[in-house]
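Quick one: structure tokens for this chain, please?
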Amino acid sequence: MRSRTANWFECKIRYEKTMEDGLQKKVTEAYVVDALSFSEAEQRIIEEMSSYISGEFNVTDIKKAAYGEIFFDDSDMADKWYKAKTQYITIDEKTEKEKRSNVNFLVQAGSFNGAVKNIDEVMGGTMIDYVIVSVAETTLMDVFEFKKKEQNDKPEFEQQ
């Protein structure tokens, strides 16, 4: 189980997909990419999807994700993405009242219970008191993290 904090963008791609029965159907699928801006998010999703989709596709929507941190589960069973809302519980020193701060995460897991377990695993390693407010399955297909290019992966115009 690992977590990653970054600027995440949710991107929707529309393309013709070959269904299990062999028919072509227009579908819209949602993905998440790690990027610094909307234009970089568009470039990254086009690069990533070009290797998976044969034929034309359109980026129909890009929006800043409502979460800054994603919990990754590298097990084979973790094939779904869950949006989780937690509340951090702190005590205001002046008023001595309980204060709750909402924090959203994206969690990879194979089931609802697996998502809750993964949240507890990551958050259990912290000193923060928290409560899981909600966990909901999303329609996200995949998350693409930023990968640093290797030293010899230079753009074509620089190679000689």
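The chain has two helices and nine strands.
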